[in-house]
Amino acid sequence: MRYNQRSIPSIDKTMLQGINLACVRGDRELFRDVSFSLEAGGLMQVRGPNGSGKTSLLRMLCGLSNPAAGEILWGGTSIRALNGEYYGAMTYIGHLSGTKDDLTVIENLRISSALAGFDIGTDQAKEALGHIGLRGREALPVKVLSQGQRRRVALARLLVCKTPVWILDEPLVALDVAAVKLIQELLEQHLREGGMVVMTTHQEIDITATSTTQLHLA
Amino acid sequence: MWIIKRDLLLAVRRQADVLTTLFFFIIVVSLFPLSVGPEMNMLRTMAPGVVWVAALLASMLSLGRMFSNDYLDGTLEQMLLSPQPLSLLVLGKAAAHWLVTGVPLVLMAPVLGIQYDLPGEALLVLTAALLLGTPVLSLIGAIGAALTLGLRGGGVLVSLLVLPLYIPVLIFGAGAVEANMSGMEFDAHLSLIGAFLLVSGVFAPWAAASALRVSLE
User: Fold this and answer.
1) Is the pLDDT confidence value at A147 over 50?
2) Counted domains in chain B
3) Which residues of A touch B6 (CB under 8 A)?
4) pTM score, two decimals?
5) Which residues constitute the domain of residue B56?
């Protein structure tokens, strides 16, 4: 079940690197000296118990917060210096769905992709929603959907926003078995095409990638 | 700008929010003639001030919603991570806020002015001053809303932060109508409000964008 999409813009030599990252919340140090390097086609799974700083790390990687120490580099340049250019290369899906309750499913998808710099038409949005299992629900307001369906609306963004880096915080929460399989296939396809994925999950999921990194936060 | 379209669409889906602001304005302005009594001269002198203060409070009332809904459902995060400049998005949101809360007030003001027995020309000046001044309220308000985002009791704090900044607009807005009624030129007042609009149009989105980045960290 391959989904036809534009191929990702060339990301040959690009690389996402974290160097000696540290995170401090209040006066507690969550982690320090975390380093990694992620190349095209690479998957990084961030693991650790609750409260170990997984979400904090992901928010740093997408540029929402600053590391207490260390630096995050995209293609060798600090993401703070790149700003908009990096945001255009990255898709972040966090705990919050980023959908508006009062807007319909299709409006939500079109608006959130426009925000990410991908202007899509109704047809393309419908196709993506159909693929993610929301066919026939395009015109419903998101507030009537179940948790899992909301999650699917958020994840539909991955189908239309073809950015090289995907940063996913617990993408599988609330999803049923079929949807988990769908997301797994989607991630594998993205990795095959040379994308990069950073994700956290508590579920056991087997994703084949050219290189898989496990990052354990104590 | 599609962000304006989005916020307008949301306003259409939640009309109650828009109507409460408008009715608040109408009721506050109408309370004064009822409580002060039908003395024409007094009503006429207090009219500009009352309408402006009511407009200030009404636009304040809806400031809390400017970013907080987007903050709670995570769309604000996505805005921060958008390749488009955040200050431009903030400008769009302030524009939508003005269209939804400011414009109805401007349209309603001449009707309410009749209650105060304002002469025709003064009504026109009042409307013109509000037309120029209400966007400033939305723009300055955006800074306050961004600074207090996610704070408990942010609603009260935002009034304390923003109301003092509204004072210049209030003085020259009400001043324009008073000048006109006492037979003086009011151009200078309107030009000054126009200048406030230009300055806040340039700096407020930028300041609010920086405040949002800090609030979400």
Assistant:
1) yes
2) 1
3) 100, 103, 111
4) 0.88
5) 2-216
